[in-house]
């Protein structure tokens, strides 16, 4: 079976853009890869697990939040190469979006911190262009 580093195939990741009113839920990663960076909650899909079930599980494990109906927001390929140009990591991330229906945000699993951010507050979290694009697409999808 392929490892996550220098894989022989992409790994499937599942993300969730959770909204509470205009606020979006962000997590600060507590472990590598990308420890300390702010992003969307999510993680790896398990074998035999449906994508939407993985989204709900990861969201709850990382933040304690539950959402109502989920919509597909975007699919993103996160590819990192080493100095020689070889693919070191390749994740295909399926991002869903939904609105909070239960739970109080708290860091769990491999998350160091959580935050509800208004649109004008997003720049302080130094999010990647892909994360900002997915949040924007999700906001439009749920209008």
Structure description:
By secondary structure, the chain is an alpha+beta fold. The protein has a single domain, classed as Nucleoside Triphosphate Pyrophosphohydrolase (Alpha-Beta Complex). Helix content is 18%, strand content 41%. The protein has 2 helices and 8 strands. Strands 1, 2, 3, 4, 5, 6, 7 and 8 form an 8-stranded mixed β-sheet that branches. A hairpin with an 8-residue loop joins strand 2 and strand 3. It is globular. The N and C termini lie far apart (41 Å).
Distance between the termini: 41 Å
CATH superfamily: Nucleoside Triphosphate Pyrophosphohydrolase
The SS-based structural class is alpha+beta
Average pLDDT for all residues? 95
List the topology elements.
Blueprint: E1 11-20, E2 23-29, E3 38-39, E4 42-44, H1 51-63, E5 66-67, E6 71-81, E7 87-102, E8 111-117, H2 129-141
Parallel strand pairs: 1-7
Antiparallel strand pairs: 1-2, 1-4, 2-3, 2-8, 5-7, 6-7
Quickly describe the structure.
The chain is α+β, with helices and mostly antiparallel strands. Helix content is 18%, strand content 41%.
């Amino acid at each position: 079976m392929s490892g996550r580093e220098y894989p022989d195939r992409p790994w499937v990741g599942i993300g969730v853009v959770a909204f509470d009113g205009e606020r979006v839920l962000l997590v600060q990663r507590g472990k590598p890869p990308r420890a300390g960076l702010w992003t969307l909650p999510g993680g790896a899909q398990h074998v035999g697990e449906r994508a939407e079930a993985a989204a709900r599980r990861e969201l709850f494990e990382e933040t304690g939040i539950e959402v109502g109906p989920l919509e597909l927001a975007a699919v993103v390929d996160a590819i990192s190469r080493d100095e020689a140009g070889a693919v070191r990591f390749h994740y295909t991330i399926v991002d869903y979006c939904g609105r909070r229906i239960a739970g109080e945000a708290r860091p769990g699993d491999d998350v160091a911190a959580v935050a509800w951010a208004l649109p004008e507050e997003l720049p302080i979290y130094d999010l990647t262009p892909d994360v900002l694009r997915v949040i924007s697409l999700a906001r439009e999808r749920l209008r």
